[in-house]
C-alpha cells in the first residue's frame, strides 16, 4: 500500500516533467510514418490502418458516410441525446463569452491602428480511441472552433475493429455540425491532416489529445501547420484540508488514474490522518473498478499522498507541479484561488469533482499537461482564430516620426528601410 510522504521524500522531477513529448526512441518511427504519408498518401493510410488498427478500409473508404451517421443515431438512446444536447449547450454558452472582436483606434492626426480577428479556415480535430472512446472530446474541440467561426472542421478518429467509429462519437460530431469525418488515427492521421492526401485536404491547425504517437507527430508537423499543445498523460492534483471526505478524494484521484497507466493522481494535505484514510480508500475502491489494472499501474507508479506543513506550502507545491486538473477541496476555496498561478483548470470545493469539467459544466477539458500549465493555456476560442495587425499612417504622422524611424533603421544597418521612409519626405 502507498505510504504518506513528505515533500523532501518525493521525486518531484518525476511528477512534474512526465510528458508524451520527449520520447526519442519513438521519434524515428513516427518520422517514418509521416514520410510514408507524404510520399504515398491514401495508400499509406490504408496500409498503416491495417497494420496498426487491424482494419481494412479499402472497401468502405476512409471517410464516414451519411449512412454510417444515420446508423449511429439508431444505436444511441434518448438519454444520451438529451445529455449530449445539454452538455453542448453548456460548452457553447461558455465559449461564446470568449469571443473577441476586431478593433480600430483613430488618432487625432488621422492615423488608424487596429487588429482584425479572423477565424482559421480549416482545422483538424483529433478524437482519441483505443482503450476508451471520448465523445466529450468531440464537443471540446468542435464547439470552440464553430464559435470562433471556422468554416471547415475535419475530424479524425481511429476505427474500431469492425471499421466503424463509436456511435456516440459519430452522433456527437453530427450534433456539433462536423460534416467531414475520417476513420483514421495515430501519427498517420496527423500526417494526413498536415500534408494532405487525395482524400483528405490539408488543414491549418490540428487540435486534440492523443497517445504518444499522436503527440510526437503533432510536434513534428508543427510549422507546416499549427497545433494546440503537446498533450501528455492525464493528471489530477488535489489540495485538501480537514473538511474533505476520504471517500470523495479517492474517487476523484481514481477518475484520472483510470485514463492511462502513465496518468498521475496526487493528493496534498497538511493533515496526515486525511492522507492515510484516503490512501486506504483508494485501495478499497480499486478492487471494484472496471479499469482497475490501468488505474492500479497509474496509482502505484505516479500516485502520491504528500504531507505539507500547511495550505500555504501546499499551494506553493501546486504551482511548482503546474497540474492539468487542480481540485481545491478546502473550507473556503475562493480565499486560496488568488494564490494559484499554474494549473490547467481549477475545481473549487467538494461539489466540483473533476468529471464536472470533463463532461458538462462548459469550460474546456483539453488542458496543458506535464508541467506546461506554466506557459500553455486551456483550449479555447482563441485557439481557432488569428490576429492581423492594421496600420494606416497619415501624412502628418509619417512626417512627424520619419526622422526617428530612419534613425532606428540605420542603427540596425538597414539603409533601404531608412530610405523607404525618407523618400516620402520629398513630397513635402
Textual characterization of the structure:
- With 428 residues, the chain is α/β, with parallel strands linked by helices.
- The protein has helices at 12-16, 24-40, 42-53, 66-74, 78-96, 135-148, 167-175, 186-195, 212-221, 246-257, 272-286, 292-302, 311-321, 333-337, 354-359, 395-411, 415-422, and strands spanning 5-6, 103-106, 112-119, 122-126, 152-156, 180-182, 205-207, 226-227, 235-240, 264-269, 303-307, 325-329, 345-348, 385-392.
- The chain folds into three domains: 5-19 and 232-361, Nitrogenase molybdenum iron protein domain (Rossmann fold, 3-Layer(aba) Sandwich); 24-227, 3-Layer(aba) Sandwich (Rossmann fold), CATH 3.40.50.1980; 393-427, no CATH class.
- It is built from 17 helices and 14 strands.
- α16 (395-411) runs antiparallel to α17 (415-422).
- The chain is globular.
- The model has no long low-confidence stretch (mean pLDDT 94).
Amino acid at each position: 500500500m502507498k505510504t504518506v510522504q513528505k515533500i523532501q521524500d518525493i521525486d518531484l522531477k518525476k511528477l512534474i516533467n512526465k510528458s508524451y513529448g520527449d520520447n526519442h526512441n519513438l521519434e524515428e518511427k513516427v518520422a517514418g510514418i509521416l514520410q510514408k504519408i507524404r510520399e504515398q498518401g491514401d495508400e499509406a493510410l490504408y496500409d498503416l490502418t491495417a497494420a496498426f488498427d487491424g482494419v481494412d478500409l479499402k472497401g468502405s473508404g476512409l471517410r464516414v458516410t451519411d449512412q454510417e451517421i444515420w446508423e449511429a443515431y439508431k444505436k444511441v438512446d434518448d438519454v444520451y441525446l438529451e445529455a449530449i444536447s445539454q452538455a453542448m449547450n453548456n460548452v457553447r454558452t461558455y465559449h461564446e463569452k470568449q469571443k473577441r472582436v476586431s478593433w480600430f483606434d483613430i488618432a487625432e492626426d488621422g492615423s488608424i491602428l487596429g487588429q482584425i480577428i479572423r477565424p482559421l479556415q480549416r482545422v483538424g480535430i483529433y478524437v482519441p480511441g483505443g482503450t476508451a472512446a471520448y465523445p466529450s472530446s468531440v464537443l471540446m474541440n468542435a464547439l470552440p472552433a464553430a464559435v470562433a467561426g471556422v468554416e471547415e472542421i475535419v475530424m479524425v478518429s481511429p476505427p474500431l475493429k469492425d471499421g466503424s467509429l463509436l456511435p456516440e462519437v459519430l452522433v456527437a460530431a453530427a450534433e456539433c455540425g462536423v460534416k467531414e469525418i475520417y476513420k483514421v488515427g495515430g501519427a498517420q492521421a496527423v500526417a494526413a491532416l498536415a500534408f494532405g492526401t487525395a482524400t483528405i485536404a490539408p488543414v491549418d491547425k490540428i487540435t486534440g489529445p492523443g497517445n504518444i504517437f499522436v503527440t510526437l507527430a503533432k510536434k513534428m508537423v508543427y510549422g507546416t501547420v499549427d497545433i494546440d499543445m503537446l498533450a501528455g498523460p492525464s493528471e489530477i492534483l488535489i489540495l485538501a484540508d480537514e473538511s474533505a471526505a476520504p471517500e470523495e478524494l479517492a474517487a476523484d484521484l481514481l477518475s484520472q488514474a483510470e485514463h492511462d497507466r502513465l496518468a498521475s493522481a496526487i493528493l496534498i494535505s497538511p493533515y496526515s490522518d486525511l492522507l492515510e484514510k484516503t490512501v486506504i480508500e483508494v485501495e478499497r475502491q480499486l478492487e471494484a473498478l472496471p479499469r482497475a489494472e490501468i488505474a492500479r499501474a497509474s496509482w502505484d507508479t505516479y500516485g502520491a499522498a504528500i504531507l505539507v506543513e500547511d495550505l500555504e506550502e501546499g499551494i506553493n507545491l501546486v504551482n511548482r507541479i503546474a497540474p492539468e486538473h487542480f481540485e481545491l477541496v478546502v473550507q473556503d476555496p475562493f480565499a486560496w484561488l488568488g494564490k494559484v498561478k499554474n494549473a490547467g483548470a481549477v475545481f473549487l470545493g467538494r461539489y466540483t469533482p473533476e468529471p464536472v469539467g470533463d463532461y458538462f459544466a462548459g469550460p474546456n477539458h483539453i488542458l496543458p499537461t506535464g508541467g506546461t500549465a506554466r506557459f500553455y493555456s486551456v483550449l479555447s476560442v482563441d485557439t481557432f482564430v488569428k490576429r492581423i495587425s492594421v496600420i494606416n499612417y497619415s501624412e502628418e504622422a509619417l512626417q512627424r516620426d520619419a526622422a526617428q524611424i530612419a534613425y532606428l533603421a540605420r542603427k540596425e544597418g538597414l539603409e533601404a528601410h531608412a530610405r523607404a521612409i525618407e523618400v516620402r519626405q520629398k513630397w513635402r
